[in-house]
Every structure is written in structure tokens, then in C-alpha cells.
Amino acid sequence: MLSEIFGPNGILAKKLPNFEWRPSQLVMAKEIAIALDKKEKIIIEAGTGTGKTLAYIIPAMLSGKKIIISTGTKSLQNQLFYKDIPLLEKIFGEKPQAIYLKGRRNYLCLWRYQLVSSKLLIQSNEMKIIKHWVNNTKTGDIAEVPVSPEWKGWADLTANAEQCLWHKCPFWEICFITQMKLLALKAKMIIVNHYLFVADMALKDKRNRQVLPSYEAVIFDEAHQLEGIISEHFGLQVSNLRIAELIRDISFLFEKRTPDEIRNELNALMDKNNKFFDLFTNLSGRKSLKEITSSATFNQSIDILKKVLERIIKIVQKSDASPEVKENLKDRAKRIKDDLGFISTQSDPDYAYWIEKRKRNITMGCSPLRVDHILRNILYPAVQSIVFTSATINTGDNFFFFKEQLGLPPDTKGVLLASPFDYKNQALLYIPPFMPDPNSTDFLKAVIKEIIKILYISKGRALILFTSLKNMKETYEKVAPQIPFPAIIQGEQSSPKLLEIFKKNIHSVLFATASFWEGIDVPGEALSCVIVDRLPFAVPDDPLMQARLNLLKKIGKNPFWSYQVPKAIIALRQGLGRLIRHRQDKGLLAKLDPRLFTRSYGRHFLKNLPPCHITRDLKDVEKFFKTF
């Protein structure tokens, strides 16, 4: 049956005008069909251009099973629901029963909307637009509203799982999330992203609640992201924002004007919350909590914060809110206090403890060092058919690293499908000679010189990826004035806006870091060159990374070879994977890190890169660009 669909003269070839027959796509579809039928787990690395989305949604539909498809990015989630699934109707004459689910912060909370609008707490043009939209929307999806997602008022009009009253809410029956859950019960295919899927796993585990219905199989696309997302959701976090939200929510609950006495006390509690987190205003990035918890000031401040939470519980009792609302608020205060106690004592060796500053939000948290046991205890017993796929899973070790990370049995089947692209003719890898070591003070200066040379040859049209914000900014400041091409840098505008500018102006140069290493798709001439400044090893002083490396040492493993190198290989492959997206694309991959040749581990990176020609001579780069 699948050969008749994916074959060179099959249904897809007849129905889709631009269809290209790819043997690897048929192999992937057959492997997935077998895994779904036999209730097995399978890992499939499908190189860029395989056509993997159709290779899994068609077997998923034909299986007749209730299947969740989870993606690493919203862009892929959108592609699946708005492009690929409608194609199935064109191909087979029937539309699959599919639904697109987002995290709950993407939907208006009717209860919170009533609280806010009834007290007229927000009088703005945005609120007027929202009031009109509320009367017409069927989904409650705030993406429908012509109001910026960055608008601060959304925090008061949406609810996270902690704020939700669930079945005790007076709006439960007509709640937009309840309605989406009912639709999901009827659907055969549920499209989510990893954040929602893992958040739902954590919700079931910690609070015995769920948003996603029961399902028979799950397909994870961009599966290489799972470890980090699971670690984030199965940890604990206490932030100035989380406590401030609780205090602000309490102020909504006094049906009439908040009494002066209560308002003054809430303001005082907010001040104490701010004073505690003000201790860390000079913090930059994420640091180990151990570095700051030894001081008497910290421990005294923790005690004060706990008393703030205890006082909040007593204030809630004075409100004229319903018993359900009071219970929710008291439960939230107690949970924050418990989380604060667990994080601040740092007593469980299975967690890494950290503190992080992002803009004005300061968070203390802990993250599990390993996630394999989480999947073995929660997911694997509940569902037998699981497909893990991505363009970058293998690290030259027959999927051993991936299996170990996610707690999969060593005999789990792994299938490696090469990209159908002709990398030897479509791409060239340039590694400049005589570059100083990345730890040398001369390295950045040499990087800047090489980038300028390359950009003149490529006529811009480049994405330059950095492993640190500092190096990105310094390079941009030095390079931008010396090139005749528009230079744009991450952070000046939102990522979608930057991509839009980059795509429109063919000769532009985009300077970017972490979030641009994967998930972006710029086919065609606008992206003809990807430059990577150095091998993307994770920041060594990150507390979670440090704790994981120490754990590996304790159990007798070499942390560099068993964890840091595989993670960096996957990151590098993702970054370079931005270049060739279609058969017609051509481009240069420039890797400026000399360690590919000067260190023993360099060959492991090289053998995991696309099979293109390698040069160390800029004249070859000039010749290459003359071919297109």
C-alpha cells in the first residue's frame, strides 16, 4: 500500500505537481507503519530533504490509531496543521480528524477576563479590541487578535496551569481549553509541540491532571530537543514574577474596591518580594545557587519570603471570593513556599540548583540531572508505539547517546536515512588555515577578518552563528561598518521580524546565536552562506551542565567524550542544516574553528557533517560562488 503511495508512479506523484520521488521517504514510511502496527519504539534520523512529515503523517492516518504528533518548534507545528494535513485531503479525498493544540497561555481565560474587565483594570485600545473579539471568537486563541503577543495585559487575561481553577471554575463548561479538550477527544491526530506534551506529562505526574486525552501512539519530530525540555518541566522554579502574579491575582478578588488596609499590606508584601530578588539584580545569565546560598543575608531573606507567602494565605481568607478561588490561591502560595524550601536547601543530589536573570525576571530553580527515569516511569509504560525522528539524532555511535539520554533499551531499532541532496555539488565546506586557538585573545580578531573576506565573496546572503552573545555583538560592531551589505543582529527586533527582513533583502547578513541554530527555513538565494564562529560546546560553567558532567565522572565515564562532544555535534549539524533546504539550493558552510583539525575530537565532528567537499583555500570559495 505505501509503495503505491510513495513510489515513483504512486498516488503522491500523480496528485502533487512538484512531487520528487525519494526512496528514503518510502523506507521511513514503511518503518513507521511497522512500528505503529507492532507497538514498537523506533528512532529514525531522516536527513534534510527526506520529506519526513508526509512520511509519518500518512502512516499515522492509515493506522486508524489515535496519535499525538509533537514538534520541537511552532513553525513545524504550523506547517503540519496548515500545509501537510490539508494535503492529505487532496491526496486521499478525505480530511483526517486532526486538531492543533497550544499551551494554555495561548487561550483567553474567561474567568480572568471577567475579573479584569468588571473592575476596569485595563482601559486601553488593546482592551477595546479584545472586548469586541471575545463576542465573536470560537477558539479563544489570542493569536486571532490584532494585539501584539508582547502586550503586558495578556498576563492578566490568560491562565497557566497553576492559576486555572479547573472543573471548579464557573466558566468550566464554556472554557476555551475545555472545548479544545472535547475536540481533541474526537480527533485521531493531535498536533502539539514538545513544551505542551511534556508540560502535560508533568501535570499528570505532579497533580494528577491532564489536558491531552489518552492516545495510542506518539511521534516526536525534532526529537533531539526532548532532553532539555523534559529537564525544564520536571524541575521547580520560583521567580519574582510567579510571586508577583499571585499577589496581583489576590487584588482582583475583592469584589468591591480593595480595602485600604488590604491594599497597603499587599503593596508591602510586593515590596518584600522585590527586595529579595533585588539581591540578584547584578546577576548575569545562569549561575549555581551554591555560590550565593552560604551568606547569612540570603538565608534570612529566604525566611522573610516564606513569611510573605504565609501572610498571603491569611489575606486570602479575608476576601469575599468563592471557596474554590480561595482554595486555589492558598494552594498556590503553599506550593510556592514548598518549592522555595526544596530549592533553597539543595538537599537532593539528583538535581542541579541554579539562579538565573532574564531581563527583569529573576528565577531560582532546580533541574533533574537525568531524564531517562522520567520517561521510563511515566511515558513508556503508558504508550508502546513511539517514533523519535529528527534530521540530527545520531552522533556516529549508532544512536547510543540518544538512547542513553532518553532511557531507551539498547536494542531499540535505529534507522539512518541520508539526505537525498547532492552535497558534493550543492555545498562547500570552508575551514580557514592558520586560525588561532579559540581560547586565544587573537581568535576574535581573526574571526572578524575571515568573516569580512567571506562576505565580500558571497555578496552578503549570510547567516553568521555565534556561541556567545558577547562575541556576536563585538563581531557585529566591527564587521557591519566594513561591509556594503545590510547587517542585522538578533535582539534588535523579534525573531520572526528579523527573518522577514533577512528573506526580503537578499544580500543582507544576519548575526545570531542560540535560537537561530535550528528551526529556521530560508530556502533560495537569500541564504547562500552559513558561518559558524566556533564549535558549539555548551557553556562549561552552566550549573546544570557542571552537575551533569560531575555525575558522569562519579559513575566512571569521560564527561567530555560521553556528553559534551555528542551534544556539540548535534548543535553543529543543526546550525549547518540551515543552508541546504531544497535540491536547487547551493551554498557555503564556513567553520572558523581550527580545532576541527588540531584536536583529536575534530574528526568526529567532520565525519558527522554533510558529505561535501572541504577546502582551506579562499580561492576555491571564489570559484564555488561563480557557479551560481
Automatic annotation (TrEMBL):
<dbReference type="InterPro" id="IPR011545">
    <property type="entry name" value="DEAD/DEAH_box_helicase_dom"/>
</dbReference>
<dbReference type="InterPro" id="IPR045028">
    <property type="entry name" value="DinG/Rad3-like"/>
</dbReference>
<comment type="similarity">
    <text>Belongs to the helicase family. DinG subfamily.</text>
</comment>
<keyword id="KW-0547">Nucleotide-binding</keyword>
<keyword id="KW-0234">DNA repair</keyword>
<dbReference type="GO" id="GO:0005524">
    <property type="term" value="F:ATP binding"/>
</dbReference>
<keyword id="KW-0378">Hydrolase</keyword>
<dbReference type="InterPro" id="IPR014001">
    <property type="entry name" value="Helicase_ATP-bd"/>
</dbReference>
<dbReference type="InterPro" id="IPR006555">
    <property type="entry name" value="ATP-dep_Helicase_C"/>
</dbReference>
<dbReference type="GO" id="GO:0016818">
    <property type="term" value="F:hydrolase activity, acting on acid anhydrides, in phosphorus-containing anhydrides"/>
</dbReference>
<dbReference type="InterPro" id="IPR006554">
    <property type="entry name" value="Helicase-like_DEXD_c2"/>
</dbReference>
<keyword id="KW-0004">4Fe-4S</keyword>
<keyword id="KW-0479">Metal-binding</keyword>
<dbReference type="GO" id="GO:0051539">
    <property type="term" value="F:4 iron, 4 sulfur cluster binding"/>
</dbReference>
<dbReference type="GO" id="GO:0043139">
    <property type="term" value="F:5'-3' DNA helicase activity"/>
</dbReference>
<dbReference type="Pfam" id="PF13307">
    <property type="entry name" value="Helicase_C_2"/>
</dbReference>
<dbReference type="GO" id="GO:0006281">
    <property type="term" value="P:DNA repair"/>
</dbReference>
<dbReference type="InterPro" id="IPR027417">
    <property type="entry name" value="P-loop_NTPase"/>
</dbReference>
<keyword id="KW-0411">Iron-sulfur</keyword>
<keyword id="KW-0347">Helicase</keyword>
<keyword id="KW-0227">DNA damage</keyword>
<protein>
    <recommendedName>
        <fullName>DNA 5'-3' helicase</fullName>
        <ecNumber>5.6.2.3</ecNumber>
    </recommendedName>
</protein>
<keyword id="KW-0408">Iron</keyword>
<feature type="domain" description="Helicase ATP-binding">
    <location>
        <begin position="33"/>
        <end position="316"/>
    </location>
</feature>
<keyword id="KW-0067">ATP-binding</keyword>
<dbReference type="Pfam" id="PF00270">
    <property type="entry name" value="DEAD"/>
</dbReference>
<feature type="domain" description="Helicase ATP-binding">
    <location>
        <begin position="11"/>
        <end position="288"/>
    </location>
</feature>
<dbReference type="InterPro" id="IPR014013">
    <property type="entry name" value="Helic_SF1/SF2_ATP-bd_DinG/Rad3"/>
</dbReference>
<dbReference type="GO" id="GO:0003676">
    <property type="term" value="F:nucleic acid binding"/>
</dbReference>
